[in-house]
Amino acid sequence: MVKVAIVGFGSRGRMFGRKIMADDNVQLVAVAEPVQQSRELALEFGVAPEMLFADADAFFAQGKICDAVFICSQDAQHIDMAMKAMELGYDICLEKPAAVNIEDCIAIRDTANRLGRKVMLTHVLRYAPFYQNIKKLIDDGTLGEIVTINQTENIAYWHFALSYVRGPWRKMADSSCTIIAKCCHDLDIINWLMPSKCTSISSFGKLFHFCEEKAPEGSAQWCVDCDSKTRENCLYNAYKIYPQRMNTSVVGGTARLKGRDIYDILDSKEDVIGRCVYHGENDAIDNQVVNMNFDNGATAHLTMTAFSERCYRYIHVHGTKGQIHGDADTGILHLTVYGQGETQIDVNKLTQQSLNDGHGGGDYFLYKDFIDYITNDSPSFTRTTIDDSIESHLMGFKAEESRLAGGKVLPIE
């Protein structure tokens, strides 16, 4: 029986908790979570009351009490928690990003190698059947040589507001730059699909919409004080968006609000969720493009945008013999081998795992691969260890450096 702990029992921590509950060979023995309501939910996952800890330090003070730990805390906390876990002897499944700067990412990598710890990042798109099918078509030569990859991360207007305007990632200095916080998945999938190394990068982007200059007439610092007509017509009306989204999804740090009266929170101005999206303290970038050059002359482009109806990813891969494109949310791929017309690949029919089960089914396969990694260590073409993850993290940090320098082309060393 593999025994594990979870540090951070928000939406991602609970997702792993559900996977563990369904696995007869794995037991969740401890949870560390500062929010009481979230921490107490771990009782429903079979964790004993005395094994619930109010913070990570209290958990680590127990010494090594299980085999591995899932670190699902906020970005800026990863470095400290990962270091303590490795020093105690834990293997780690570490939520992306590994850390909020490249120096800390490298420190985690070097410590893992020095101590012989297994550290795997949650670059979950690699595990999604949608992207695995694209990878197979690239590797078997169906598309010929890959010339360019275009990936778009459509965050969705409501998701961006919940997570990056009113949520934990609203201030980049307190979390991480937006291209890393939201799109290190996308940079990793581009890096994984492209059969050569990125050698240079440039980027443009800014906070375009969620700022005072775009505030409608009649808006106020808090939704509760907003002119009633203005609030009623606002896409980001907290009195609508939170009750609606809390019933269908838990994103943007809203796991902490479960079981509480949303209207009381908004009326009392006690939480950032009640702040006007145009009058907040947020500086997270709401649109950004990243251009990548690879050592064989191939190119790639990533678009990150807050402005979409749905939260989904779209990819288009161009090769010398064919092309493939599709919406990861629908699971339909459009393959064209030049001169032979288009065929559709319904990824939903190629896997027994539901594509609705987190990141197109990727969450399930990532969890299973981590357990295999720390028990059998059998080969895996999707596994993203801390050593593998450094490259795409470096691409993200260099993209942000380029953006701040007005789009300057920077080498990837």
Structural features, described:
- The protein has three domains: 2-121, NAD(P)-binding Rossmann-like Domain (Rossmann fold); 125-210 and 283-411, Dihydrodipicolinate Reductase, domain 2; 212-274, no CATH class.
- Helices cover 33% and strands 21% of the residues.
- It has helices spanning 11-21, 36-41, 56-60, 78-88, 102-115, 129-139, 157-165, 178-193, 228-232, 238-246, 262-268, 362-375, 386-404, and strands spanning 2-7, 26-32, 52-53, 68-71, 91-94, 119-121, 146-154, 198-206, 287-294, 299-305, 312-319, 322-327, 332-337, 342-346, 410-411.
- Strands 14-13-12-11-7-10-9-8-15 form a nine-stranded mixed β-sheet. A six-stranded parallel β-sheet has the order 3-2-1-4-5-6, with helices on both faces.
- Helix 5 packs antiparallel against helix 13 (386-404) and helix 8 packs across helix 13.
How many domains in all?
3
Fraction of residues in H or I helices? 25-40%
> What is the tally of beta strands?
15
Could you state the order of secondary-structure elements as H and E?
EHEHEHEHEHEHEHHEHHHEEEEEEHHE
Distance between the termini: 42 Å
CATH C-level class of the largest domain: Alpha Beta
The largest β sheet comes out as: 9 strands, mixed
**Name given to the CATH homologous superfamily of the largest domain:** Dihydrodipicolinate Reductase, domain 2
| Principal-axis shape | globular
Structural class: alpha/beta
Low-confidence parts lasting 5 or more residues at pLDDT below 50?
none
